[in-house]
Design goal:
The complex is a heterodimer of chains A (395) and B (376). Chain A has 395 residues and is of the alpha/beta class. Chain A has 2 domains: 2-165, 2-Layer Sandwich (VC0802-like); 174-391, 3-Layer(aba) Sandwich (Rossmann fold), CATH 3.40.50. Chain A has helices spanning 19-33, 55-62, 82-93, 116-130, 184-194, 212-229, 240-249, 255-273, 293-300, 316-325, 329-332, 354-361, 366-375, and strands at 2-8, 39-43, 47-52, 68-77, 100-107, 135-136, 143-149, 154-165, 174-178, 198-205, 232-238, 278-280, 307-308, 378-382. In chain A, strands 2-3-1-4-8-7-5-6 form an 8-stranded mixed sheet. Chain A has a 6-stranded mixed sheet with strand order 13-12-9-10-11-14, with helices on both faces. In chain A, strand 2 and strand 3 (47-52) form a beta hairpin. In chain A, helix 5 runs parallel beside helix 6 (212-229) and helix 7 packs antiparallel against helix 8 (255-273). The longest helix of chain A is centred in the last third of the chain and has 19 residues, at 255-273. The model of chain A has no long low-confidence stretch (mean pLDDT 90). Chain B is of the alpha/beta class. Chain B folds into 2 domains: 2-9 and 254-375, Aspartate Aminotransferase, domain 1, CATH 3.90.1150.10; 14-251, 3-Layer(aba) Sandwich (Aspartate Aminotransferase, domain 2), CATH 3.40.640.10. In chain B, 41% of the residues lie in helices and 15% in strands. In chain B, the strands form 3 sheets. Chain B has a 7-stranded mixed sheet with strand order 2-8-7-6-5-3-4, sandwiched between helices. A 4-stranded antiparallel sheet of chain B has the order 9-10-13-12. A two-stranded parallel sheet of chain B has the order 1-11. In chain B, strand 5, helix 6 (157-167) and strand 6 (172-176) form a beta-alpha-beta unit. In chain B, helix 2 runs parallel beside helix 7, helix 3 runs parallel beside helix 4 (99-110) and helix 8 runs parallel beside helix 12 (354-375). The longest helix of chain B is centred in the last third of the chain and has 22 residues, at 354-375. Classes of the chains: A alpha/beta (395), B alpha/beta (376). Chains A and B meet through helix 6 of A and helix 1, helix 2 and helix 7 of B.
Chain lengths: 395, 376
C-alpha cells in the first residue's frame, strides 16, 4: 500500500480552455515549494498526486501554495479485489478514532460486476462488523471514506486538510507591491498573490532618518511573502534626497501628499521596467489623511498604471487578523521608524487640491531626483528560507 | 584521565569554544545598541535563538537566557508562584528533583506557600494516584524533572501532563530538563516551563535557558532596562548565547545513535560490577544509560571516589551539589538508608571509549579488593 498526497483544485476547475496552463503552473509552484524534497508530481484534470516518502512534511509545506483547494492523504491498494480492499481499509481505520462515518465509492473499473452504491454498502457493513462503537451517518459523518476502484488498483482517502485556495502564483501576471514596514501592505501583498499575481516589492528608505533595522524589518516581511510568491524581488529605493527636498521647500501640510506622489511615480517607472502590470498597496479608505478619497485621487493622478488596493474596504481589525494569520503582524509592530513616519506634519491636509500639488512640485527638481533614485536603487532577491550563511560557521 | 562525571559537567566542545571566541571578538557590539555594530550582534543572537526554537519546535519569544539551570529554575518557580499567589499557594514537586528545586521550594515555603512531595513507585515513576490525590483547586504549579540527576530515571512528561490537566487544567507544569536535553529526545510541548543549561551538553558554563510557553504568564523577579529580555534583563551574553545554540544543535544530532553506544558501555559496567557482593546497582527500567548509580555496602563512597581519583578516574558521590548526605533520589526509590548513604554516580558520554571503560573496570576491581578487605 502506497501513501500519496492528493490535491484538489477548487476554483481552478472553472477554467476551461486554459486549465492546462494553470495546472502546469501549479505543479511548478508545488515543486518549487518542495525543492528540498524528493517528490514526484503527476496530475490529470481532476486532481494532482504527490508521491513522497515524507507526506507530513510535504503537506505542511504545500499548505502555503495557492491554487490548492483541498489536500488529502490517499492510500493506493494494489488490487481491486474487494476482500483485500476491505481488510486494508479496516487496517487504516483502526489507527483512527471516530464514531460516525460514511463510505463513498467510485467505480472507474466497470468490470466490477456491481454498482457503486452496493460497493459502499458492502464495505460499510464490513467496517461496522469489525470495529466497535461505530455508526453510519450519511448526512454529517465524522469521517468520509472515499474509495475509488480504478483499473488496476484502488485509491482510498479520508483525511483532509484545507488548502489556501486562490490561483497558482504567476498565472495572472506580475504586480509591484509598495511595501512599508507597517501592518497593511504585507497583507495587501498576500491577497494579491492569492489571486495568482506574482509580486515584486518596492521599499523606500531614508537613511540616516530611517535605520538599518527598519530595512531589515522590511526584508523579513518580504521573506514572509516570499513563502507564497516563490521568492520575491525587493527594490530598495533611497528616498532621502527627495524627502529632504520636499521638507525644505514645500508647505508642511502637503508633505505627505507630495511624498506619496513621488513614491507613486517611482513605483510606476520601476513597474514598467520590470514588466509589472499593476501597482499594489495597503491603502484602506479613511485610515489616515493620505487615504481619504480626495487624497487618493490627488495622489493617484500622477500614474496611469492600474493601482489595486486589496484592503480598501477592510476594517483595521480584520487586517490585523489576517496579518496574524500570515505571521507578519509581530514583525510589523516592531518599533522602527520608516519614511512615512518621519517628517510627519502636525496637520496634514485631508482634502488636497491637485492644482496646489502641481504648483508646489514646481519648487523642487523632482524629475532629476527621481531619475537619480531609480538609477541607484538596490535590487535584492529574497528567498523564503532565510539565508543564514552569514552566521553558518558560528552556528 | 578517565572522566566519568559527564552529568556533573562536560568539557566544552572544540567547535563550540571556537564559536565563543569568534563571537566575542567579531560581535562585541551590544545587541541593545541601535547602531550597525549593535544590530549585527542582535542579528546573530536572533539567528542563534531561531536555531534553538527550530530544534525544539517552539517560538523564539518563548526562550529566555539565564546564567544556568539554577537561575532558570528560580525564574520559573518563583515567577509562577508570584504570578498566581492569589489563585493559590500550593505547589507539588517530586522526590527526585535536583537540590536547587528543593532550595527554591524552601524559600517559597517561608513566604507561605505550601509544598507537597509526590510519591513515586519502586521503579522511580511518578505515582499518578498520589499526584491525583495531591492536586487541589489551589495547586498552582507542578514541577517534575524530565530525567533525575542521580539515577537517571526518566519521567513520562506527556502522561503526567494529561493526568495533571484532568485534575486541574490551570496548574502550571514545569520540568527541569537539565539531564534530559542532548541525552534523550524530548518535547517542550509537554510542559509550560522547562529549564536546561549549556555546560551539560558540551557548551560553556554560565548560560542556560528558560522555556516559557506563550500560553502562560509568570511574574518577573529581576528588573532592568531593555525590552528584549523581560525575565532576565540586561545586556545579553551574545557569545555565550551563540555558543549555547551551537551546543544544542550538536547535542541534539544523532541522539539515538549516541544513546545506543552509551547503552553498550553501561551494560558492560553493570556486567562487571554485579559480581561484587558489596555493590548494589541502582538502576530501574526507566533509568537512561548515561547515568549509572551504584551503592557501596561497607565502603564510604567518598573514600572510593578519592581512590579512583589516584588513577585519574573521576566520578561523583551522590551528586556534586549534595555530597555528604543521604542520596534523596536513592531514598525516594529504594527507601533504604544503607543503600542511600554511600552511592557513586558514573556518568557516561558518547566521548567515553570502550578502552576507558575496560580500564575503569580494572581500577575498580583493584580498589574494591583493597577497600572491602579493610572492613571485613
Amino acid at each position: 500500500m502506497e501513501k500519496v498526497i492528493l490535491i484538489k483544485y477548487g476554483e481552478l476547475s472553472t477554467k476551461k480552455n486554459n486549465i492546462n496552463f494553470f495546472l502546469k503552473k501549479l505543479k511548478e509552484n508545488i515543486l518549487f515549494a518542495l525543492q528540498d524534497f524528493d517528490v514526484e508530481v503527476t496530475y490529470d484534470l481532476g486532481r494532482m498526486f504527490i508521491h513522497t516518502l515524507s507526506p507530513d512534511k510535504v503537506i505542511d509545506r504545500i499548505k502555503n501554495v495557492f491554487g490548492i483547494h483541498e489536500i488529502n492523504i490517499g492510500y493506493i491498494i494494489e488490487t481491486t479485489e474487494l476482500d483485500i480492499v476491505k481488510e486494508e481499509v479496516l487496517f487504516l481505520l483502526n489507527k483512527k478514532e471516530f464514531t460516525t462515518f460514511k463510505v463513498e465509492s467510485k467505480r472507474a473499473n466497470k468490470k466490477l460486476n456491481t454498482t457503486s452504491i452496493e460497493l459502499s454498502k458492502n464495505l460499510g457493513a464490513y467496517i461496522l462488523k469489525n470495529k466497535d462503537g461505530l455508526k453510519v451517518d450519511v448526512n454529517n459523518p465524522e469521517i468520509l471514506i472515499n474509495v475509488e476502484y480504478r483499473m488496476n488498483n484502488t485509491l482510498v482517502y479520508f483525511d483532509e486538510f484545507k488548502g489556501l485556495g486562490g490561483y497558482p502564483v504567476g498565472t495572472l501576471g506580475k504586480g509591484l507591491l509598495m511595501l512599508s514596514g507597517g501592518i497593511d501592505s504585507p497583507v495587501a501583498g498576500y491577497l494579491t498573490i492569492k489571486r495568482g499575481v506574482k509580486i515584486e516589492a518596492i521599499y523606500f528608505e531614508s537613511p540616516p532618518h530611517t535605520s538599518l533595522e527598519a530595512k531589515n524589518k522590511v526584508i523579513s516581511l518580504a521573506r514572509k511573502l516570499a513563502l507564497y510568491n516563490n521568492d520575491l524581488i525587493l527594490h530598495i529605493v533611497n528616498f532621502t534626497e527627495i524627502q529632504e527636498a520636499i521638507y525644505k521647500n514645500i508647505p508642511h501640510e502637503y508633505l505627505i501628499t507630495i511624498m506619496r506622489r513621488m513614491m507613486y511615480r517611482i513605483s510606476a517607472i520601476i513597474a514598467s521596467q520590470r514588466n509589472a502590470k499593476l501597482l499594489v498597496n495597503g491603502e484602506s479608505i479613511g485610515q489616515v489623511a493620505s487615504q481619504t478619497l480626495t487624497s487618493m485621487s490627488a495622489i493617484n493622478e500622477v500614474v496611469s498604471i492600474p493601482v489595486i488596493r486589496p484592503l480598501a474596504c477592510f476594517d483595521k481589525l480584520d487586517i490585523i487578523e489576517l496579518a496574524k494569520k500570515i505571521d507578519t503582524y509581530e514583525t510589523s509592530i516592531l518599533p522602527f521608524e520608516d519614511c512615512c513616519t518621519i517628517f510627519v506634519p502636525k496637520h496634514p491636509v485631508i482634502n488636497p487640491s491637485k492644482e496646489k500639488c502641481h504648483e508646489y512640485e514646481k519648487l523642487i527638481p523632482y524629475k532629476d531626483l527621481i531619475y537619480e533614485a531609480i538609477k541607484t536603487h538596490e535590487v535584492k532577491k529574497i528567498t523564503a528560507k532565510e539565508n543564514n550563511d552569514e552566521f553558518k560557521d558560528l552556528l | 584521565m578517565i572522566y566519568l562525571d559527564y552529568s556533573a559537567t562536560t568539557p566544552i566542545g572544540f567547535e563550540v569554544l571556537d564559536t565563543y571566541n569568534k563571537t566575542s571578538k567579531d560581535f562585541f557590539g551590544n545587541p541593545n545598541s541601535i547602531h550597525e555594530l549593535g544590530v549585527k550582534s542582535k542579528n546573530l543572537m536572533n539567528s542563534a535563538t531561531k536555531q534553538i526554537a527550530e530544534i525544539f519546535n517552539i517560538n523564539e519569544s518563548e526562550i529566555t537566557y539565564t546564567s544556568g539551570a539554577t537561575m532558570a529554575n528560580n525564574l520559573a518557580l518563583i515567577g509562577t508562584a508570584m504570578h498566581n499567589h492569589k489563585k493559590g499557594k500550593h505547589i507539588i514537586v517530586s522526590k527526585l528533583e535536583h537540590p536547587s528545586i528543593y532550595a527554591i521550594c524552601d524559600y517559597l515555603s517561608s513566604l507561605g506557600f505550601e509544598i507537597s512531595y509526590v510519591n513515586n513507585d519502586e521503579e522511580g515513576l511518578i505515582d499518578f494516584d498520589d499526584l491525583k490525590s495531591l492536586t487541589r483547586e489551589d495547586t498552582i504549579l507542578v514541577s517534575i524533572c524530565a530525567v533525575n540527576s542521580e539515577l537517571g530515571i526518566r519521567q513520562p512528561l506527556k502522561m503526567i501532563r494529561q493526568k495533571k490537566k484532568k485534575e486541574n487544567p490551570h496548574t502550571v507544569f514545569h520540568s527541569d530538563m537539565t539531564q534530559a536535553i542532548g541525552k534523550v529526545s524530548i518535547s517542550m510541548h509537554d510542559v509550560d516551563l522547562a529549564t536546561f543549561t549549556a555546560h551539560k551538553i558540551y557548551g560553556p558554563k554560565g548560560i542556560g535557558v528558560l522555556y516559557k510557553s506563550n500560553n502562560i504568564a509568570i511574574s518577573p523577579i529581576l528588573f532592568g532596562s531593555g525590552k528584549m529580555n523581560m525575565l532576565n534583563p540586561g545586556t545579553p551574553a551574545v557569545p555565550l548565547i551563540v555558543a549555547l545554540s551551537k551546543a544544542v544543535r550538536l547535542a541534539t544530532t544523532d541522539i539515538e545513535k549516541k544513546e545506543r553506544f552509551i547503552e553498550r558501555l553501561n551494560l558492560k559496567i553493570v556486567d562487571a560490577l554485579k559480581k561484587y557482593n558489596g555493590i548494589m546497582i541502582n538502576k530501574t527500567k526507566y533509568s537512561i544509560p548515561h547515568i549509572l548509580n551504584i551503592s557501596l555496602r561497607n565502603i564510604k563512597a567518598e573514600t572510593f571516589l578519592h581512590a579512583l581519583e589516584e588513577f585519574e578516574v573521576y566520578v561523583s558521590s551522590n551528586t556534586a551539589c549534595s555530597s555528604g548526605t543521604l542520596s534523596t533520589s536513592v531514598m525516594a526509590v529504594y527507601n533504604d538508608k544503607v543503600r542511600a548513604s554511600s552511592t557513586l554516580r558514573i556518568s557516561l558520554s558518547h566521548l567515553t571509549t570502550t578502552d576507558e571503560i575496560n580500564k575503569f573496570i580494572n581500577y575498580f576491581d583493584e580498589i574494591y579488593r583493597k577497600l572491602s578487605g579493610l572492613h571485613n
